[in-house]
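Researcher: Go.
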Amino acid sequence: MQDHVLGDYKILKSIGEGTLGAVVLAEHRFIKKQYVLKILPKELSQDRNFITRFEEQVAKLALLDHPHIVRIHNISFAEGSYFLVSDCVVDSIGETTNLAQYMSGRKERLKEEELIHVLSQIADALDYAHTKGQVAHQALKLNNVLIGKGNPGMEVFLSDLGLAKIISPGKIISRNFLATAEALGALPVEKENDQAYSPYPVESDKLDKLSLSFLQSYAFLAPEQKRFESVGMQVDSFAFGVLVYYLISGVFPEGKFQLPSEIAPEYALDWDTLVSDCLAHDPTRRPSQLKKLFEQTRPVQPVFTPRPQPEASREEPGGVESVKAAVVEQSPQPAPVPVMAYSKPTAAPALERRVVVETKDITEATPPAITPPQDKHYSEKLSSMLHRDPVVTEYQPEVQEARNIAPIETEMVVVRGGDFFRGSNQGNRDEMPRHLITLDSFAMDVHPVTNEQFVRFLDFMGGEKDPNYNDLIRLKDSRITRSSGRTSIESGYAKHPVVGVTWYGAVAYAKWVGKRLPSEAEWEIAARGRLDESLFPTGESIEKSQANFFSSDTTTVMSYAPNGYGLYDMVGNVYEWCQDWYGYNYYETSAQEPVNPRGPIQGVYRVLRGGCWKSLKEDMRSSHRHRNNPGTVNSTYGFRCATDAR
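Model: Structure:
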Protein backbone atom coordinates (compact mmCIF):
# COMPACT_ATOMS: atom_id res chain seq x y z
CA MET A 1 0.00 0.00 0.00
CA GLN A 2 3.05 2.26 0.08
CA ASP A 3 2.54 5.52 -1.86
CA HIS A 4 -1.17 4.70 -2.21
CA VAL A 5 -3.52 7.67 -1.74
CA LEU A 6 -6.55 7.14 0.50
CA GLY A 7 -8.78 10.19 0.56
CA ASP A 8 -6.74 13.14 1.81
CA TYR A 9 -3.93 10.89 3.04
CA LYS A 10 -0.88 9.43 1.33
CA ILE A 11 0.12 6.10 2.83
CA LEU A 12 3.83 5.96 3.71
CA LYS A 13 4.16 2.44 5.06
CA SER A 14 2.33 -0.41 6.77
CA ILE A 15 2.70 -0.70 10.54
CA GLY A 16 0.78 -3.94 11.11
CA GLU A 17 -2.62 -5.47 11.82
CA GLY A 18 -4.78 -4.18 14.66
CA THR A 19 -8.12 -5.07 16.21
CA LEU A 20 -10.01 -3.25 13.46
CA GLY A 21 -7.82 -4.17 10.49
CA ALA A 22 -4.74 -2.74 8.77
CA VAL A 23 -2.72 -0.02 10.55
CA VAL A 24 -0.66 2.31 8.35
CA LEU A 25 1.43 5.46 8.66
CA ALA A 26 0.09 8.21 6.39
CA GLU A 27 0.68 11.85 5.64
CA HIS A 28 -2.04 14.42 5.02
CA ARG A 29 -1.60 15.61 1.44
CA PHE A 30 -2.30 19.27 2.20
CA ILE A 31 -1.17 20.06 5.73
CA LYS A 32 1.79 17.63 5.47
CA LYS A 33 1.32 16.13 8.93
CA GLN A 34 1.67 12.43 9.68
CA TYR A 35 -1.01 10.30 11.31
CA VAL A 36 -1.81 6.66 11.98
CA LEU A 37 -4.78 5.26 10.03
CA LYS A 38 -6.74 2.19 11.11
CA ILE A 39 -8.45 0.91 7.97
CA LEU A 40 -11.58 -1.20 8.53
CA PRO A 41 -11.93 -4.42 6.53
CA LYS A 42 -14.29 -4.28 3.55
CA GLU A 43 -16.84 -6.60 5.14
CA LEU A 44 -17.18 -4.30 8.17
CA SER A 45 -17.39 -1.14 6.06
CA GLN A 46 -20.38 -2.65 4.26
CA ASP A 47 -22.22 -3.55 7.49
CA ARG A 48 -24.53 -0.63 8.27
CA ASN A 49 -25.21 -1.80 11.84
CA PHE A 50 -21.49 -1.95 12.50
CA ILE A 51 -20.86 1.49 10.99
CA THR A 52 -23.59 2.96 13.18
CA ARG A 53 -21.99 1.51 16.32
CA PHE A 54 -18.59 2.59 15.06
CA GLU A 55 -19.61 6.21 14.54
CA GLU A 56 -21.34 6.41 17.93
CA GLN A 57 -18.38 4.92 19.78
CA VAL A 58 -15.76 7.03 17.99
CA ALA A 59 -17.72 10.20 18.72
CA LYS A 60 -17.46 9.33 22.41
CA LEU A 61 -13.78 8.38 22.18
CA ALA A 62 -12.86 11.60 20.37
CA LEU A 63 -13.91 13.54 23.48
CA LEU A 64 -11.31 11.80 25.66
CA ASP A 65 -8.42 14.13 26.43
CA HIS A 66 -5.78 12.51 28.62
CA PRO A 67 -1.98 12.87 28.45
CA HIS A 68 -1.53 9.07 28.26
CA ILE A 69 -4.27 8.19 25.75
CA VAL A 70 -3.61 8.35 22.00
CA ARG A 71 -5.79 11.13 20.60
CA ILE A 72 -8.40 10.22 17.96
CA HIS A 73 -9.11 12.99 15.45
CA ASN A 74 -11.84 11.77 13.11
CA ILE A 75 -13.18 9.01 10.89
CA SER A 76 -13.14 9.20 7.10
CA PHE A 77 -14.51 7.25 4.16
CA ALA A 78 -12.74 6.67 0.83
CA GLU A 79 -12.66 3.95 -1.83
CA GLY A 80 -15.35 1.95 -0.05
CA SER A 81 -13.49 1.80 3.28
CA TYR A 82 -13.86 3.60 6.58
CA PHE A 83 -10.70 4.48 8.46
CA LEU A 84 -9.86 6.03 11.81
CA VAL A 85 -7.34 8.88 12.06
CA SER A 86 -5.24 9.17 15.24
CA ASP A 87 -1.95 10.68 16.43
CA CYS A 88 1.37 9.06 15.59
CA VAL A 89 3.34 8.34 18.79
CA VAL A 90 7.12 7.99 18.52
CA ASP A 91 9.79 7.52 21.18
CA SER A 92 12.77 9.75 21.98
CA ILE A 93 14.69 8.66 18.87
CA GLY A 94 11.73 8.83 16.48
CA GLU A 95 10.87 5.11 16.44
CA THR A 96 7.36 3.62 16.71
CA THR A 97 7.79 1.30 19.70
CA ASN A 98 5.27 -0.58 21.81
CA LEU A 99 5.77 -2.11 25.24
CA ALA A 100 6.22 -5.63 23.83
CA GLN A 101 9.10 -4.49 21.62
CA TYR A 102 10.65 -2.49 24.46
CA MET A 103 10.55 -5.42 26.91
CA SER A 104 11.91 -7.88 24.34
CA GLY A 105 15.01 -5.67 24.03
CA ARG A 106 15.71 -5.61 27.78
CA LYS A 107 17.97 -8.15 29.42
CA GLU A 108 16.99 -7.39 32.98
CA ARG A 109 13.84 -6.81 34.99
CA LEU A 110 12.43 -3.31 35.41
CA LYS A 111 13.49 -1.62 38.60
CA GLU A 112 10.60 -1.13 41.00
CA GLU A 113 10.66 2.65 40.48
CA GLU A 114 10.44 2.15 36.70
CA LEU A 115 7.62 -0.36 37.12
CA ILE A 116 5.61 2.04 39.28
CA HIS A 117 6.26 4.91 36.87
CA VAL A 118 4.94 2.96 33.85
CA LEU A 119 1.99 1.29 35.58
CA SER A 120 0.78 4.47 37.27
CA GLN A 121 0.46 6.16 33.86
CA ILE A 122 -1.57 3.24 32.49
CA ALA A 123 -3.72 3.06 35.62
CA ASP A 124 -4.41 6.79 35.55
CA ALA A 125 -5.44 6.62 31.87
CA LEU A 126 -7.79 3.68 32.51
CA ASP A 127 -9.36 5.34 35.56
CA TYR A 128 -9.96 8.47 33.49
CA ALA A 129 -11.61 6.46 30.69
CA HIS A 130 -13.78 4.55 33.17
CA THR A 131 -14.98 7.56 35.17
CA LYS A 132 -14.96 10.47 32.70
CA GLY A 133 -15.76 8.68 29.48
CA GLN A 134 -17.57 5.62 30.81
CA VAL A 135 -15.50 3.60 28.36
CA ALA A 136 -13.60 0.36 28.91
CA HIS A 137 -10.56 -0.50 26.84
CA GLN A 138 -11.45 -4.21 26.53
CA ALA A 139 -8.26 -4.93 24.55
CA LEU A 140 -5.44 -3.81 26.85
CA LYS A 141 -2.21 -5.67 25.98
CA LEU A 142 1.49 -5.00 25.44
CA ASN A 143 1.10 -4.08 21.77
CA ASN A 144 -1.47 -1.41 22.66
CA VAL A 145 0.88 0.43 25.04
CA LEU A 146 3.05 2.79 22.98
CA ILE A 147 6.35 4.31 24.14
CA GLY A 148 6.58 8.09 23.79
CA LYS A 149 9.12 10.79 24.55
CA GLY A 150 9.52 10.72 28.32
CA ASN A 151 11.52 13.27 30.29
CA PRO A 152 12.33 12.12 32.87
CA GLY A 153 11.56 8.39 32.69
CA MET A 154 9.56 6.44 30.15
CA GLU A 155 6.24 7.88 28.92
CA VAL A 156 3.53 5.50 27.70
CA PHE A 157 0.27 5.93 25.79
CA LEU A 158 -2.79 3.69 25.47
CA SER A 159 -3.94 3.04 21.91
CA ASP A 160 -7.11 1.34 20.56
CA LEU A 161 -8.97 2.34 23.72
CA GLY A 162 -12.66 1.40 23.46
CA LEU A 163 -12.45 0.12 19.89
CA ALA A 164 -12.87 -3.54 20.83
CA LYS A 165 -16.40 -2.81 22.05
CA ILE A 166 -17.48 -2.24 18.46
CA ILE A 167 -16.54 -5.81 17.51
CA SER A 168 -17.66 -8.84 19.54
CA PRO A 169 -14.98 -10.94 21.30
CA GLY A 170 -15.90 -13.89 19.09
CA LYS A 171 -15.12 -11.93 15.93
CA ILE A 172 -11.89 -10.62 17.42
CA ILE A 173 -10.67 -14.14 18.22
CA SER A 174 -11.71 -15.53 14.84
CA ARG A 175 -10.03 -12.62 13.08
CA ASN A 176 -6.82 -13.23 15.05
CA PHE A 177 -6.89 -16.87 13.91
CA LEU A 178 -7.44 -15.78 10.30
CA ALA A 179 -4.70 -13.13 10.39
CA THR A 180 -2.25 -15.66 11.87
CA ALA A 181 -3.08 -18.23 9.18
CA GLU A 182 -2.72 -15.63 6.41
CA ALA A 183 0.66 -14.45 7.70
CA LEU A 184 1.92 -18.04 7.91
CA GLY A 185 0.61 -18.91 4.44
CA ALA A 186 -1.33 -21.74 6.05
CA LEU A 187 -4.81 -21.02 4.68
CA PRO A 188 -6.57 -23.97 3.02
CA VAL A 189 -6.07 -24.19 -0.75
CA GLU A 190 -8.56 -25.14 -3.44
CA LYS A 191 -7.88 -28.64 -4.76
CA GLU A 192 -10.30 -30.37 -7.13
CA ASN A 193 -13.27 -28.29 -5.98
CA ASP A 194 -12.39 -28.97 -2.38
CA GLN A 195 -10.25 -27.35 0.29
CA ALA A 196 -7.05 -28.95 1.51
CA TYR A 197 -4.23 -28.03 3.85
CA SER A 198 -1.57 -25.79 2.38
CA PRO A 199 1.32 -27.92 1.01
CA TYR A 200 3.91 -25.23 1.82
CA PRO A 201 6.02 -25.56 4.99
CA VAL A 202 5.76 -22.88 7.67
CA GLU A 203 9.00 -21.17 8.71
CA SER A 204 9.71 -21.93 12.36
CA ASP A 205 10.92 -18.44 13.29
CA LYS A 206 7.81 -16.88 11.75
CA LEU A 207 5.60 -19.40 13.56
CA ASP A 208 7.18 -18.58 16.92
CA LYS A 209 6.67 -14.82 16.52
CA LEU A 210 3.06 -15.08 15.32
CA SER A 211 2.07 -17.64 17.94
CA LEU A 212 3.45 -15.34 20.63
CA SER A 213 1.45 -12.46 19.16
CA PHE A 214 -1.74 -14.50 19.20
CA LEU A 215 -1.12 -15.85 22.70
CA GLN A 216 -0.57 -12.30 23.92
CA SER A 217 -3.99 -11.22 22.65
CA TYR A 218 -5.64 -14.25 24.24
CA ALA A 219 -3.77 -14.04 27.56
CA PHE A 220 -5.12 -10.57 28.32
CA LEU A 221 -8.78 -11.55 27.86
CA ALA A 222 -10.78 -11.82 31.10
CA PRO A 223 -12.68 -15.10 31.76
CA GLU A 224 -16.00 -13.47 30.88
CA GLN A 225 -14.58 -12.34 27.53
CA LYS A 226 -13.47 -15.87 26.70
CA ARG A 227 -17.01 -17.09 27.47
CA PHE A 228 -18.44 -14.35 25.18
CA GLU A 229 -20.50 -12.90 28.03
CA SER A 230 -21.41 -9.24 28.54
CA VAL A 231 -18.49 -7.36 30.04
CA GLY A 232 -17.86 -4.18 31.99
CA MET A 233 -15.00 -2.06 33.24
CA GLN A 234 -13.66 -5.00 35.27
CA VAL A 235 -12.12 -6.60 32.17
CA ASP A 236 -9.52 -3.82 32.20
CA SER A 237 -8.66 -4.63 35.82
CA PHE A 238 -8.01 -8.25 34.82
CA ALA A 239 -5.86 -7.19 31.85
CA PHE A 240 -4.00 -4.75 34.11
CA GLY A 241 -3.17 -7.62 36.47
CA VAL A 242 -1.84 -9.66 33.55
CA LEU A 243 0.26 -6.68 32.48
CA VAL A 244 1.70 -6.19 35.98
CA TYR A 245 2.59 -9.87 36.25
CA TYR A 246 4.23 -9.93 32.81
CA LEU A 247 6.36 -6.85 33.50
CA ILE A 248 7.60 -8.50 36.70
CA SER A 249 8.06 -12.09 35.49
CA GLY A 250 8.34 -11.91 31.70
CA VAL A 251 5.59 -14.55 31.27
CA PHE A 252 1.80 -14.57 31.37
CA PRO A 253 0.01 -15.92 34.48
CA GLU A 254 -1.31 -19.41 33.80
CA GLY A 255 -2.64 -22.05 36.17
CA LYS A 256 -0.97 -21.99 39.57
CA PHE A 257 1.69 -19.40 38.88
CA GLN A 258 4.60 -18.17 40.95
CA LEU A 259 3.83 -15.09 43.01
CA PRO A 260 5.72 -11.88 42.24
CA SER A 261 7.42 -11.98 45.66
CA GLU A 262 9.05 -15.29 44.68
CA ILE A 263 10.18 -13.97 41.29
CA ALA A 264 11.36 -10.51 42.37
CA PRO A 265 12.16 -10.64 46.10
CA GLU A 266 14.02 -7.33 45.77
CA TYR A 267 10.72 -5.46 45.29
CA ALA A 268 9.45 -3.74 48.43
CA LEU A 269 5.72 -3.36 47.64
CA ASP A 270 3.16 -6.12 48.06
CA TRP A 271 2.67 -6.99 44.37
CA ASP A 272 1.22 -10.40 45.32
CA THR A 273 -1.98 -8.86 46.64
CA LEU A 274 -2.28 -6.41 43.75
CA VAL A 275 -1.98 -9.14 41.11
CA SER A 276 -4.27 -11.55 42.97
CA ASP A 277 -6.99 -8.92 43.37
CA CYS A 278 -6.87 -7.94 39.69
CA LEU A 279 -6.93 -11.55 38.49
CA ALA A 280 -9.94 -12.53 40.57
CA HIS A 281 -12.25 -14.84 38.59
CA ASP A 282 -15.32 -13.01 39.88
CA PRO A 283 -15.44 -9.57 38.17
CA THR A 284 -17.14 -7.97 41.20
CA ARG A 285 -14.09 -8.75 43.37
CA ARG A 286 -11.65 -6.91 41.12
CA PRO A 287 -10.59 -3.35 42.03
CA SER A 288 -12.42 -0.56 40.22
CA GLN A 289 -9.89 2.26 40.83
CA LEU A 290 -6.50 1.10 39.57
CA LYS A 291 -4.47 4.19 40.50
CA LYS A 292 -5.46 3.75 44.15
CA LEU A 293 -3.82 0.32 44.17
CA PHE A 294 -0.42 1.97 44.40
CA GLU A 295 -1.56 4.07 47.36
CA GLN A 296 -3.03 1.03 49.13
CA THR A 297 -0.21 -1.40 48.35
CA ARG A 298 2.00 -1.43 51.41
CA PRO A 299 5.59 -2.62 51.62
CA VAL A 300 5.98 -6.23 52.64
CA GLN A 301 6.77 -6.17 56.39
CA PRO A 302 9.15 -8.82 57.75
CA VAL A 303 7.57 -11.18 60.27
CA PHE A 304 9.20 -10.98 63.71
CA THR A 305 8.86 -14.05 65.98
CA PRO A 306 9.69 -13.31 69.63
CA ARG A 307 12.26 -15.59 71.20
CA PRO A 308 10.82 -17.84 73.94
CA GLN A 309 11.64 -16.64 77.43
CA PRO A 310 12.75 -19.14 80.15
CA GLU A 311 10.23 -19.89 82.86
CA ALA A 312 10.66 -17.99 86.08
CA SER A 313 12.24 -20.11 88.84
CA ARG A 314 10.04 -21.18 91.66
CA GLU A 315 11.11 -20.51 95.24
CA GLU A 316 11.75 -23.63 97.30
CA PRO A 317 10.66 -23.69 100.97
CA GLY A 318 13.21 -22.07 103.22
CA GLY A 319 14.01 -19.27 100.76
CA VAL A 320 16.64 -21.24 98.85
CA GLU A 321 16.22 -21.77 95.08
CA SER A 322 16.96 -25.22 93.73
CA VAL A 323 17.99 -25.16 90.13
CA LYS A 324 17.70 -28.25 87.96
CA ALA A 325 18.94 -28.10 84.39
CA ALA A 326 18.36 -30.69 81.72
CA VAL A 327 20.69 -30.45 78.74
CA VAL A 328 19.66 -32.29 75.63
CA GLU A 329 22.32 -32.77 72.99
CA GLN A 330 21.13 -34.05 69.66
CA SER A 331 23.37 -34.82 66.70
CA PRO A 332 22.27 -33.50 63.30
CA GLN A 333 20.08 -35.72 61.17
CA PRO A 334 21.80 -37.01 58.04
CA ALA A 335 20.36 -36.25 54.57
CA PRO A 336 17.98 -39.00 53.38
CA VAL A 337 19.69 -41.61 51.18
CA PRO A 338 17.61 -42.79 48.21
CA VAL A 339 16.81 -46.52 48.35
CA MET A 340 17.29 -48.46 45.11
CA ALA A 341 14.40 -50.53 43.86
CA TYR A 342 14.03 -53.97 45.43
CA SER A 343 16.80 -53.26 48.01
CA LYS A 344 16.22 -53.99 51.68
CA PRO A 345 16.52 -50.86 53.78
CA THR A 346 18.81 -51.15 56.80
CA ALA A 347 17.92 -49.83 60.21
CA ALA A 348 19.48 -46.47 60.99
CA PRO A 349 21.79 -46.37 64.02
CA ALA A 350 20.74 -44.46 67.08
CA LEU A 351 21.71 -40.85 66.54
CA GLU A 352 20.26 -39.24 69.62
CA ARG A 353 22.09 -38.84 72.92
CA ARG A 354 20.39 -37.47 75.99
CA VAL A 355 22.42 -36.07 78.89
CA VAL A 356 20.80 -34.92 82.09
CA VAL A 357 22.85 -32.83 84.48
CA GLU A 358 21.53 -31.98 87.91
CA THR A 359 23.25 -29.15 89.71
CA LYS A 360 23.71 -28.76 93.39
CA ASP A 361 21.61 -26.33 95.39
CA ILE A 362 22.91 -22.79 95.12
CA THR A 363 22.95 -20.97 98.41
CA GLU A 364 23.63 -17.58 96.91
CA ALA A 365 20.65 -15.56 95.82
CA THR A 366 20.12 -15.43 92.04
CA PRO A 367 20.86 -11.95 90.74
CA PRO A 368 17.78 -10.07 89.54
CA ALA A 369 17.10 -9.90 85.79
CA ILE A 370 18.38 -6.76 84.12
CA THR A 371 15.52 -4.72 82.66
CA PRO A 372 16.53 -1.99 80.15
CA PRO A 373 15.19 1.45 81.00
CA GLN A 374 11.99 2.38 79.17
CA ASP A 375 12.66 5.24 76.74
CA LYS A 376 9.33 6.64 75.58
CA HIS A 377 10.90 8.67 72.79
CA TYR A 378 12.79 5.61 71.52
CA SER A 379 9.61 3.48 71.58
CA GLU A 380 7.68 6.06 69.58
CA LYS A 381 10.45 6.28 66.98
CA LEU A 382 10.61 2.50 66.63
CA SER A 383 6.84 2.18 66.33
CA SER A 384 6.59 4.90 63.67
CA MET A 385 9.41 3.28 61.68
CA LEU A 386 7.76 -0.15 61.67
CA HIS A 387 4.23 1.07 60.90
CA ARG A 388 4.77 4.02 58.60
CA ASP A 389 2.78 4.22 55.37
CA PRO A 390 4.66 3.56 52.12
CA VAL A 391 5.77 6.57 50.12
CA VAL A 392 5.62 6.15 46.34
CA THR A 393 8.04 8.58 44.77
CA GLU A 394 8.01 9.70 41.17
CA TYR A 395 10.34 7.62 39.01
CA GLN A 396 13.63 9.24 38.09
CA PRO A 397 15.98 7.53 35.64
CA GLU A 398 18.94 5.82 37.21
CA VAL A 399 22.02 7.98 37.33
CA GLN A 400 25.07 5.86 36.69
CA GLU A 401 28.23 6.46 38.60
CA ALA A 402 30.13 9.07 36.70
CA ARG A 403 33.36 7.80 35.16
CA ASN A 404 36.25 10.20 35.17
CA ILE A 405 36.50 10.24 31.37
CA ALA A 406 36.32 13.56 29.55
CA PRO A 407 35.59 13.80 25.81
CA ILE A 408 38.10 15.22 23.36
CA GLU A 409 36.48 18.43 22.20
CA THR A 410 36.16 19.37 18.53
CA GLU A 411 36.34 22.90 17.20
CA MET A 412 33.04 24.09 15.72
CA VAL A 413 32.07 26.55 13.00
CA VAL A 414 28.92 28.68 13.23
CA VAL A 415 26.70 28.88 10.15
CA ARG A 416 24.53 31.97 10.49
CA GLY A 417 20.82 31.51 9.87
CA GLY A 418 19.05 32.80 6.79
CA ASP A 419 17.58 31.70 3.46
CA PHE A 420 19.35 28.97 1.48
CA PHE A 421 18.76 26.79 -1.55
CA ARG A 422 18.72 23.01 -1.12
CA GLY A 423 18.25 20.16 -3.59
CA SER A 424 19.12 19.97 -7.27
CA ASN A 425 17.22 19.75 -10.54
CA GLN A 426 20.17 17.92 -12.13
CA GLY A 427 20.53 15.09 -9.63
CA ASN A 428 18.46 12.05 -8.64
CA ARG A 429 14.70 12.14 -8.29
CA ASP A 430 14.85 12.29 -4.47
CA GLU A 431 16.90 15.54 -4.68
CA MET A 432 14.17 17.40 -6.57
CA PRO A 433 12.95 20.06 -6.63
CA ARG A 434 15.61 22.62 -5.84
CA HIS A 435 13.90 24.98 -3.41
CA LEU A 436 14.42 27.76 -0.89
CA ILE A 437 14.47 27.02 2.86
CA THR A 438 15.02 29.07 6.01
CA LEU A 439 17.32 27.86 8.79
CA ASP A 440 18.17 29.20 12.23
CA SER A 441 21.83 29.60 13.11
CA PHE A 442 23.65 26.38 13.98
CA ALA A 443 27.19 25.19 14.66
CA MET A 444 28.95 22.18 13.09
CA ASP A 445 32.07 20.22 14.04
CA VAL A 446 34.94 21.11 11.72
CA HIS A 447 35.67 17.42 11.09
CA PRO A 448 34.02 14.00 11.62
CA VAL A 449 34.39 12.26 14.98
CA THR A 450 37.67 10.35 15.11
CA ASN A 451 38.61 6.96 16.52
CA GLU A 452 40.42 8.48 19.50
CA GLN A 453 37.32 10.51 20.35
CA PHE A 454 34.92 7.58 20.06
CA VAL A 455 37.15 5.24 22.09
CA ARG A 456 36.78 7.56 25.09
CA PHE A 457 33.01 7.34 24.68
CA LEU A 458 33.14 3.52 24.60
CA ASP A 459 35.27 3.52 27.76
CA PHE A 460 32.72 5.80 29.40
CA MET A 461 29.84 3.52 28.34
CA GLY A 462 31.69 0.38 29.39
CA GLY A 463 30.58 -1.53 26.28
CA GLU A 464 29.13 -1.38 22.79
CA LYS A 465 25.42 -1.12 23.75
CA ASP A 466 23.26 1.90 24.62
CA PRO A 467 20.73 1.85 27.51
CA ASN A 468 18.10 0.40 25.11
CA TYR A 469 20.52 -2.38 24.08
CA ASN A 470 21.03 -1.00 20.58
CA ASP A 471 24.47 -1.49 19.06
CA LEU A 472 26.66 1.60 19.21
CA ILE A 473 29.37 0.20 16.95
CA ARG A 474 30.42 -3.14 15.51
CA LEU A 475 34.10 -3.41 16.30
CA LYS A 476 34.94 -5.85 13.52
CA ASP A 477 33.88 -3.20 10.99
CA SER A 478 35.93 -0.50 12.71
CA ARG A 479 39.55 0.24 13.56
CA ILE A 480 38.89 -0.25 17.27
CA THR A 481 39.49 -3.49 19.18
CA ARG A 482 38.66 -4.64 22.70
CA SER A 483 40.80 -7.12 24.63
CA SER A 484 40.37 -8.04 28.30
CA GLY A 485 37.88 -5.21 28.67
CA ARG A 486 40.28 -2.56 27.30
CA THR A 487 39.85 -0.72 24.01
CA SER A 488 42.63 0.15 21.61
CA ILE A 489 43.01 1.64 18.14
CA GLU A 490 44.93 0.15 15.25
CA SER A 491 48.26 1.82 14.83
CA GLY A 492 48.07 4.97 12.72
CA TYR A 493 44.26 5.30 12.82
CA ALA A 494 43.74 7.50 15.90
CA LYS A 495 43.08 10.61 13.79
CA HIS A 496 41.01 8.79 11.16
CA PRO A 497 37.21 9.14 11.29
CA VAL A 498 35.49 6.41 13.28
CA VAL A 499 33.60 3.88 11.12
CA GLY A 500 31.25 0.97 11.79
CA VAL A 501 29.03 3.25 13.91
CA THR A 502 25.25 2.83 13.91
CA TRP A 503 22.84 5.76 13.91
CA TYR A 504 22.13 4.92 17.56
CA GLY A 505 25.84 5.14 18.34
CA ALA A 506 26.09 8.54 16.65
CA VAL A 507 23.07 9.85 18.60
CA ALA A 508 24.43 8.52 21.91
CA TYR A 509 27.88 10.05 21.37
CA ALA A 510 26.42 13.43 20.44
CA LYS A 511 24.29 13.39 23.59
CA TRP A 512 27.36 12.51 25.68
CA VAL A 513 29.26 15.57 24.47
CA GLY A 514 26.20 17.83 24.82
CA LYS A 515 25.45 18.12 21.12
CA ARG A 516 23.17 16.47 18.54
CA LEU A 517 23.29 15.16 14.98
CA PRO A 518 22.73 17.73 12.24
CA SER A 519 19.45 17.77 10.37
CA GLU A 520 19.67 16.87 6.70
CA ALA A 521 18.97 20.48 5.76
CA GLU A 522 21.74 21.77 8.05
CA TRP A 523 24.20 19.24 6.68
CA GLU A 524 23.51 20.14 3.05
CA ILE A 525 23.78 23.89 3.62
CA ALA A 526 27.01 23.41 5.62
CA ALA A 527 28.43 21.17 2.87
CA ARG A 528 27.78 23.77 0.16
CA GLY A 529 30.15 26.18 1.88
CA ARG A 530 28.36 29.28 0.55
CA LEU A 531 28.39 27.93 -3.07
CA ASP A 532 24.61 27.65 -3.43
CA GLU A 533 24.72 27.49 -7.22
CA SER A 534 27.44 24.82 -7.53
CA LEU A 535 27.03 21.05 -7.76
CA PHE A 536 30.02 20.29 -5.51
CA PRO A 537 31.40 22.01 -2.39
CA THR A 538 34.44 22.82 -4.52
CA GLY A 539 32.51 24.29 -7.47
CA GLU A 540 31.22 22.73 -10.68
CA SER A 541 33.65 19.82 -10.40
CA ILE A 542 35.77 18.01 -7.82
CA GLU A 543 39.13 16.26 -8.08
CA LYS A 544 40.74 13.52 -5.99
CA SER A 545 43.17 16.09 -4.69
CA GLN A 546 40.22 17.90 -3.07
CA ALA A 547 38.47 15.01 -1.28
CA ASN A 548 39.00 11.33 -0.37
CA PHE A 549 36.87 9.31 -2.80
CA PHE A 550 37.36 6.29 -5.08
CA SER A 551 40.32 5.22 -2.92
CA SER A 552 41.32 2.25 -0.76
CA ASP A 553 40.85 3.52 2.81
CA THR A 554 39.99 6.43 5.07
CA THR A 555 42.46 9.23 5.58
CA THR A 556 43.35 11.39 8.56
CA VAL A 557 40.73 14.08 9.11
CA MET A 558 41.53 17.56 7.79
CA SER A 559 43.89 16.14 5.14
CA TYR A 560 42.19 18.20 2.44
CA ALA A 561 41.40 21.91 2.17
CA PRO A 562 38.26 23.17 3.98
CA ASN A 563 35.16 24.47 2.22
CA GLY A 564 33.87 28.05 2.30
CA TYR A 565 32.67 27.71 5.92
CA GLY A 566 35.99 26.27 7.13
CA LEU A 567 34.57 22.71 7.42
CA TYR A 568 36.74 19.72 6.51
CA ASP A 569 35.76 16.41 4.83
CA MET A 570 32.12 17.35 4.27
CA VAL A 571 32.22 15.05 1.23
CA GLY A 572 34.34 11.94 0.91
CA ASN A 573 36.18 9.95 3.59
CA VAL A 574 33.00 8.69 5.39
CA TYR A 575 29.25 8.90 4.97
CA GLU A 576 27.80 10.92 7.87
CA TRP A 577 24.61 10.07 9.76
CA CYS A 578 21.96 12.83 10.01
CA GLN A 579 19.11 13.10 12.48
CA ASP A 580 16.29 12.89 9.89
CA TRP A 581 14.22 9.98 8.66
CA TYR A 582 14.62 9.49 4.92
CA GLY A 583 11.65 10.26 2.67
CA TYR A 584 11.95 9.73 -1.07
CA ASN A 585 9.59 12.64 -1.87
CA TYR A 586 10.43 14.71 1.18
CA TYR A 587 11.94 17.61 -0.80
CA GLU A 588 8.45 18.27 -2.17
CA THR A 589 7.22 18.60 1.41
CA SER A 590 10.23 20.71 2.37
CA ALA A 591 9.39 23.16 -0.41
CA GLN A 592 5.92 23.67 1.16
CA GLU A 593 7.18 23.82 4.76
CA PRO A 594 10.52 25.58 4.27
CA VAL A 595 11.23 26.83 7.81
CA ASN A 596 13.74 24.60 9.64
CA PRO A 597 12.68 21.35 7.89
CA ARG A 598 13.38 18.31 10.07
CA GLY A 599 12.38 15.42 7.80
CA PRO A 600 9.42 13.03 8.05
CA ILE A 601 8.12 12.19 11.53
CA GLN A 602 8.49 8.48 10.81
CA GLY A 603 10.18 6.17 8.35
CA VAL A 604 12.26 3.06 7.78
CA TYR A 605 15.68 4.55 6.99
CA ARG A 606 17.82 7.34 8.47
CA VAL A 607 19.65 9.80 6.23
CA LEU A 608 23.35 9.52 5.38
CA ARG A 609 25.16 12.29 3.47
CA GLY A 610 28.52 13.11 1.91
CA GLY A 611 29.76 10.00 0.14
CA CYS A 612 32.80 8.03 1.34
CA TRP A 613 36.25 6.79 0.42
CA LYS A 614 34.70 4.10 -1.81
CA SER A 615 32.31 6.47 -3.61
CA LEU A 616 32.37 7.68 -7.19
CA LYS A 617 32.63 11.33 -8.15
CA GLU A 618 28.82 11.67 -8.56
CA ASP A 619 28.30 10.90 -4.86
CA MET A 620 30.35 13.97 -3.93
CA ARG A 621 27.54 16.34 -4.99
CA SER A 622 26.32 18.55 -2.13
CA SER A 623 22.70 17.45 -2.70
CA HIS A 624 23.39 13.69 -3.05
CA ARG A 625 21.27 11.66 -0.60
CA HIS A 626 21.87 8.22 0.88
CA ARG A 627 20.02 6.22 3.54
CA ASN A 628 20.04 2.99 5.56
CA ASN A 629 18.48 1.33 8.59
CA PRO A 630 19.53 3.06 11.84
CA GLY A 631 21.01 -0.16 13.24
CA THR A 632 23.13 -0.87 10.16
CA VAL A 633 26.92 -0.78 10.40
CA ASN A 634 29.39 -0.29 7.59
CA SER A 635 33.09 0.41 7.25
CA THR A 636 32.15 3.64 5.44
CA TYR A 637 29.64 5.07 7.98
CA GLY A 638 30.71 7.81 10.44
CA PHE A 639 29.28 11.11 11.68
CA ARG A 640 29.93 14.60 13.02
CA CYS A 641 28.01 16.63 15.60
CA ALA A 642 26.06 19.88 15.49
CA THR A 643 24.33 22.18 17.95
CA ASP A 644 22.05 25.21 18.02
CA ALA A 645 23.71 28.63 17.90
CA ARG A 646 22.53 32.13 18.73
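Model: Confidence is low (pLDDT under 50) at residues 206-211, 302-307, 309-366.
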